[in-house]
Each structure stands twice: as structure tokens, then as C-alpha cells.
Specification:
Helix content: over 70%
Shape: globular
Radius of gyration: 22 Å
Order of helices and strands: HHHHHHHHHHHHHHHHHHHH
Strand content: under 5%
Low-confidence stretches: 1-10, 227-232
Length: 429
């Protein structure tokens, strides 16, 4: 009897780990895409780049480099996101990587500012297409009780990228020049393209590497929320109808406008602030610019754990907004330079607590047939409106001659996002 029982136990098939592998691949894609964006934050402090583009001392033109990218990024999310439901996330994401690779070639060869702006628009359109595919993958591959951690894994790439890229590009541009940074990024882009094309599938049912045990685990989890177990292709109209009238979805969008405004406003201007307003050296600027994103890695991981453990999403995001507002305010008003850098790092780092949870909350609310379109609307509207942040901060710096007003802009964003999440917290989300 004991022998038979032992044999039965040994014959039980253990689930493979293809969904965990997918989460790691999605992290890699986001990591490399965000590195593409970060290089401009360092370039706008580089005298060689500013002189070549003819924008030395022009804060508005510096902000325009990020603003145009974000505007195109927002359009790409909204207009191109349905490709995830038509082509499937694997093909759509691969196409987006090819487009952003072409944009890097244009940027590296640019000899005038207008060409550089064209490169930024192309990059925005290409990367705008791929981001909603992250949610499409997560919705299809992970049961609801695992999505908080899964979203935290790939969103960690958003913090890892600037944490590594800030000091890396500070070093690279210093020793070789700004053009080389574009071609280094181009070579790096081949890594996520390979991973997506050869190591992912649109759904678990299409994977050749997944076993029956893992497939059953995923399908049982999805059945709880009546997700489709076979690949379905909803029309754009059907997907839009599934969430367009839900006010809770739009409160998440309001928060995400704030989230991305803080993200891109700080990512664009923090290196300049540290060097020009606080007087840090080139090397110190690169190191200190990475601190918020190192902290962001920790807060994103914590966000995923808390979202799954508590079963509530909005309170976590509310805490994130409080942390951002307080940290940035005290950083802006601190007299000591290092104290200011530390407070800003803590404040900006708190944004990581809200990102993964916001995507998990959206995936809770929106049905499977509308998830790609909803993700595109959320990310597109969020980044489209947040495109104003780098330009607005640059305008405030130009008009006032000080960075203080620009930092208060970020504090105001945190207040608005906090109000949106307070409403959802009261509603029990």
C-alpha cells in the first residue's frame, strides 16, 4: 500500500513555470524600452548635445524633447493598442520594438533639432504600441490572485532602467559622446525582440512549453472571473463598450495621468535640477539621479505583494500619492543640497508603490475582451496628458528662473491623484 501511494505521488505532474518566465521577459522589454527614454534626461545636461541641437540655455526646448515623445506615446497607446486584440500581443509587441529601433537610428544620425524631434515622435509611437500588450499578456496568463505580483515584476523594469541608465549614460556620454548612446541602445533593443518573438505565445493554450498542470492551474484561476479560455478576438467597439461607461475606470485614468506626470516630469528634470540648482558634479549627478529609481524597485515589489495579500488596491495607491507629495515638497524646500536630494529620492521613489497596483486594479475592473483597448486608453490618456509635465516644468523654470515652481507642479499632481484614489478607497476598491 505504501509503495503504491509513493508511486502515485511521484507520478503527479508538477506545473511548469512558463508564466513566471513570461513575467521576466516582460520585465526585460520594459527595461530596455525605458532605457531608450532615459538617455534624453542626461543629454539635456550635456553641453555637446545642446550645442549640436542649438538649444543651449533653452529650458522650453529641452522639455519639448520629452513632451513630444509623450504626446506621440499617448497617441500610439490609444490608436494602436487594438492591434493587441487583432494581431495578438506577441506580433504587436515585436512590431513596436522594430519601430523604436528605427527611431534610434534617426536620433543617432540627427544633425538638427527638428530631426531629433522626429526621432522622439517615432519612438513614442513605437513604444506606445507595446505597453498595452503587457496587460494583454498578464490578463491571459495569470489568474487574478497572481496578477499583483506579476504586474510588479514587469513594472520593476520601469525603475531598474533609470536606476542603471542614469549613471551608465552619464559615463558613456562623458567618454564617447552623445551619438554613441543611440547606437548602444539600438544594439540593446535586439535582446527584447529575440525574447518576445522566440519565447512567448499569446495565450497559455498556444504555448509549446507549458505542461497540462500549469495550463490547468491558469485556466481554473481564470474561470473564477469567467475569462475566456480560448483565444478570442473582440472588436474594438465591443472592447470599448465593456469599460467606457465605468466611472471607476476613469478615476484610475485620472490617477494614471498624475502618476505619469510625476514620473516623466522628474525623470526629465531631476538630473538638471541636481546639477544646475544644487551644484552637484557630473559624476554625483549621475549617481544621485539613480536613487529614486533604486527605491522604486523596492516600492514596486512591495506594491505587488501588498496588492495580492490585502486584496485592496486603492489604499496602497493613496499612500503612494501621500509619499510623493510630502517627499517632493520637503526636497524642494530643504536648504542643504544632500538633504534635498534624499527627500526627492524618497518622494519620487514612492511613485513605484502605485504603478503595479493601478494596473492590477484596472485588470480587476475591465473584462477580458476589453483589456487591450482599456490598457491603451489608460496608458495613452495618462501619458498624453502627462506630456505637458516636462514642458510645463520647463516653462516654469524659464519664467521664474527657479526650479521651485516646477517641483510644486509635481506636488499638485500628487494631491489630485490622492483625491481620485481616496474616492475608490471609500468605494471599497
Amino acid at each position: 500500500m505504501s509503495v503504491a501511494t509513493s508511486e502515485n505521488v511521484s507520478n503527479v505532474e508538477k506545473p511548469t513555470h512558463q508564466r513566471q518566465l513570461l513575467a521576466g521577459i516582460l520585465l526585460a522589454v520594459v527595461f530596455f524600452s525605458y532605457i531608450d527614454r532615459v538617455n534624453v534626461s542626461i543629454l539635456v545636461v550635456d553641453p555637446g548635445f545642446l550645442e549640436a541641437m542649438g538649444i543651449t540655455g533653452d529650458s522650453v526646448q529641452k522639455g519639448l524633447l520629452m513632451t513630444l515623445f509623450l504626446a506621440a506615446y499617448g497617441v500610439g497607446n490609444v490608436i494602436l493598442s487594438p492591434l493587441g486584440d487583432i494581431l495578438g500581443p506577441r506580433k504587436a509587441m515585436s512590431l513596436s520594438i522594430v519601430i523604436w529601433g528605427i527611431s534610434l537610428v534617426v536620433g543617432g544620425l540627427a544633425s538638427v533639432f527638428t530631426t531629433m524631434l522626429v526621432s522622439r515622435v517615432m519612438l513614442g509611437l513605437g513604444e506606445g504600441m507595446h505597453f498595452p500588450m503587457q496587460s494583454k499578456f498578464i490578463k491571459e496568463w495569470f489568474p487574478p490572485y497572481e496578477r499583483g505580483k506579476a504586474n510588479a515584476v514587469w513594472q520593476t523594469g520601469m525603475a531598474l532602467a533609470p536606476a542603471i541608465a542614469m549613471p551608465f549614460f552619464t559615463w558613456l556620454i562623458h567618454i564617447s559622446g552623445w551619438r554613441e548612446s543611440f547606437f548602444v541602445l539600438l544594439a540593446m533593443g535586439l535582446i527584447p525582440l529575440y525574447l518576445i518573438w522566440f519565447h512567448t505565445s499569446d495565450t497559455p493554450q498556444q504555448s509549446k512549453r507549458i505542461n497540462e498542470a500549469e495550463l490547468r492551474l491558469i485556466e481554473d484561476g481564470l474561470a473564477a472571473e469567467k475569462a475566456k479560455q480560448a483565444l478570442g478576438k473582440a472588436t474594438f467597439k465591443e472592447g470599448l463598450k465593456s469599460f467606457i461607461g465605468n466611472y471607476q475606470f476613469w478615476l484610475i485614468v485620472v490617477y494614471y495621468v498624475v502618476h505619469t506626470s510625476v514620473l516623466w516630469g522628474s525623470m526629465t528634470w531631476l538630473p538638471s535640477y541636481l546639477k544646475e540648482a544644487r551644484g552637484f558634479s557630473w559624476a554625483a549627478m549621475g549617481a544621485l539621479s539613480s536613487l529614486p529609481w533604486i527605491l522604486g524597485v523596492v516600492t514596486k515589489i512591495l506594491s505587488g505583494i501588498l496588492a495580492d495579500k490585502l486584496g485592496r488596491r486603492a489604499p496602497i495607491i493613496l499612500v503612494a500619492m501621500i509619499g510623493v507629495g510630502l517627499g517632493v515638497y520637503f526636497g524642494a524646500t530643504a536648504e542643504d543640497n544632500m538633504t534635498s536630494a534624499i527627500f526627492l529620492s524618497i518622494g519620487i521613489g514612492f511613485i513605484g508603490l502605485g504603478g503595479p497596483t493601478a494596473w492590477t486594479l484596472m485588470q480587476d475592473i475591465v473584462p477580458g475582451e476589453g483589456i487591450s483597448t482599456a490598457a491603451g486608453v489608460m496608458n495613452g490618456v495618462g501619458n498624453g496628458f502627462s506630456a505637458l509635465a516636462p514642458l510645463a516644468i520647463g516653462f516654469l523654470i524659464s519664467v521664474t528662473g527657479s526650479y521651485f515652481g516646477g517641483l510644486l507642479y509635481l506636488v499638485g499632481c500628487a494631491v489630485v491623484g490622492g483625491i481620485a484614489m481616496l474616492i475608490l478607497t471609500i468605494k471599497g476598491r
